[in-house]
Amino acid sequence: MQDAITAYLLELEAAGRSPLTIASYRQALNDLSRFLKGTRPLNFRRVKVEQLRAYLGALQVVRLKPSTIRTRCTIISCFFNWLLEEGIVKENPMLHLRRPKKPHQLRPIFTTDELVEIIQAAGDSRNPIRNRAIIYLLLDCGLRLSELSNLKATDYDARTSTLTINGKGSKVRLVRPGRRCREAFEQHLALTNGCLWGANRGGLRDLIYRLGRKAGVKTYPHKFRHSFANRFLDAGGSLDALQCLLGHTEISTTMIYARAGQQERALRSHAEHSPGDRLAF
Predict the structure, then answer these.
(1) DSSP letter string over 87-145?
(2) pLDDT tens per residue across span 16-42
(3) 12 and 117 share a domain?
(4) Domains contained in the chain, number
(5) Does a structural domain hold residue 154?
């Protein structure tokens, strides 16, 4: 099975999947392989639904989150689909397995006061110009941490005020920051020489955590992405535009980010478009 896993991961790498995605696939498939070897001498061509059900049960025993178990199910199913395409197995046993229900969780977002505190904390830090640019880019463009880390000075076109973002799966998209974000970023660009941030992905994550602690706000990089989506829609942005700006392939993924303020937006829209109030008499 290890040879098959190695070959599958190499194919994912050749397809341009991100190193983080490949690492998560490797971890999940190696974990499955270890479990199956512990149950009986392994011939993965004859893996049964019962064995996979036992594996998912073992994941529940160690109290993995339902969302994590669902991700494991997706990875294993993709792997068996690849084995099926390669003619190595005759069916995908995951098709006969019931997966954990997807929990309906609202994505946490920043309040306006919290964002003001974080921006002020960035302005009072050792490197205020760089750190304000980082916070504004996360908030105003909905960037993933990896996208922020990979950003280069040449990705910004001052003539059109657009940034080229190299996203997950080698997908490229354009964003156009607002005035405050552009000013903060251009101010930093004028001072930078070589490396844009002077920190790698891990260093940027630690910086964002530190600024949050300084501001007294629970802060992590992806929370800015959630907040961007919510505030973009609150300001009247459309769902299909948000899908494009976030780099989502499926609109259903965008909806997950949009649910935090969905009820309040629906109430405002209801008041604005009341059928009763529009009767002509």
Answers:
(1) TS-SS-GGGGSPPPPPP--PPP---HHHHHHHHHHHHTSSSHHHHHHHHHHHHHH---H
(2) 777 888 899 999 999 998 888 876 656
(3) no
(4) 2
(5) yes
